[in-house]
Amino acid sequence: MAPTLLTTRELVVLERTEKIASCFSLLGASFIILTFVLSPDFRKPVNRLIFYASWGNMLGNAATLISQSGIRAGQRSALCQFQAFLIQMFFIADALWNLAMAVNVYLTLFKKYSAEQLKALEWRYHVMCYGVPFVIALAYCFIDTRDNGRIYGPAQLWCWISNDWAFLRLVTFYVPAWICIAVSFTLYIMAGREIFRKRAELRAFREPSRTSVEEPFSGLKTTEVSVRHELAGFNFLDPPPASYLDTARLNHSTGTAPKGYEQYSTNIHSSPPSTAFDPSPRTSSHSTPAHKRCQESLEANTAAWRYTKVALLFFVSLCITWGPSSINRIYDLAHPTAVSYQLNIVSAIVLPLMGFWNGVIYFVTTRAVSKAIFWDLVERVAPRKKSAHPPTLGARSLRNSTEARKSKGAGVSARESLTSFAKEGRAGDEQV
Questions:
Q1: What is the pLDDT of residue 295?
Q2: Is the N or the C terminus of the chain less surrounded, counting Cβ atoms within 10 Å?
Q3: Are 129 and 115 a contacting pair, CB within 8 Å?
């Protein structure tokens, strides 16, 4: 076992840092769980996976709050073994849930999975993200050899896989985590290319479709003109006298009527245009199947694009979380008798913050609903100040949709889709 080279003061700083970061993470995870349970507006396909991951974040933070108390209790103590079990199981689960989100993006874009089909896969995600880590973490509790002792033991920051079993940190923890991150990143790149390709196709499809169905003269103002003229003293059933025709030729340039005949008159009447000028092209009143397919494809790709942005935020948070800690453990393998205080302090900050980052991402994706609920609470607590902070258009529309959803019953949750996710995302963008 490598000797501990950290001073007492450094250990105290590490412990306090872990606990403070864990408290922020618990706040983020609690916000996710409470809002998801209490309001149906938060129960979207992408939010469900974050909701499931939040339970693992909370249990993982329970272990980080124990901090170095497990180490002080001793390697064979129940507290140390329990803390190591929680860390081994629930930290890796966060990376696996990110992989599940990436798989959902892939299935949505390339396999055309609906929200119901994605929901049917969630039990498999639970087996992958919680079941497999549970088996490994539980098996480690019973392994005890004569040469290396128990697998779980002191690991600088907390009880986890001891230094005598350091290779297992890579084999069953960091390597699987980075494989998940790498696969997720690959799927996101594929999804991004596909989304931009489909957007280009949609733009190319929509432009000719507009000109093919519009009326060529729909933007012109039409005026109806009727002309009446008659010659006084003539019977139009009889031809005019020859003397009149001769005189008319002579007096044509002067504009005067022939002698003995009155000037003919002309009356022009115009009716007002039926509609004002509309510069926008007119399309047919009925939608063709091609237009319907275009609209459905546009909404689906908009939803998938928003879904991908959320998953990418989740991916970036994982890189921030796992990067410094991975470097720290590689340093431990390269220098078994040395301890880097700087790497440990960074790891103590970023590792317990998994729930916090998930909470930030969750709030960003549901900011419209969150603001609507916030102003509802303000109106209930201080109704007189209602006019001081009126809800925005997006908040009002989301509030109306909430009331409508409640009136329709619980069956609405079965009809949610990525399209509704895109539409509510656009409502949220009105507030920004």
A1: 62
A2: C
A3: no
33-61 pLDDT, tens per residue? Answer: 999 998 888 887 778 888 999 999 999 99
Integer-rounded Cα Rg, in Å, for the chain is: 37
43 CB-contact burial (10 Å; exposed 0-12 / middle 13-18 / buried 19+): middle
Transcribe 209-245 into DSSP letters. Answer: HHHHHS-TTTTS---EEEEEEE-TT--TTSPPPHHHH
The helix/strand/coil state of 53 is helix
pLDDT band at residue 393 using 50, 70 and 90 as cut-offs = very low
d(CA 278, CA 213): 16
What gap in Å lies between CA 126 and CA 107, rounded to an integer? 17
Output the pTM of the full model: 0.66
Residue carrying the six token digits 């993200």: 129
What burial letters (b/e) apply to 191-208, b meaning 16+ CB within 10 Å?
Answer: bbebbeebeeebeeeeee
Of 218, 243, 85, the C-alpha closest to 150 is 85
Q: Strand, helix or coil at 262?
A: coil
Listed in sequence order, the residues at least 6 apart from 173 whose beta carbon sits closer than 8 Å to its beta carbon are 88, 91, 92, 161
Give me the amino acid identity at 397: S
pLDDT digits (tens, 9 = 90+) for 360-379: 888 887 888 878 877 877 88
Contact 369, 39 (CB under 8 A): yes
Q: Which residues contact 33 (CB under 8 A, 6 or more apart)?
A: 51, 54, 55, 58
Q: What is the largest CA-CA distance in the chain?
A: 140
pLDDT in tens, 69-100: 999 999 999 999 999 999 999 999 999 998 99
Q: What is the pLDDT of residues 130-143, one digit of tens each?
A: 999 999 999 999 99
Q: Is the pLDDT of residue 386 over 50?
A: no
Picking from 82, 85, 87, 79, the residue whose alpha carbon sits closest to that of residue 60 is: 87
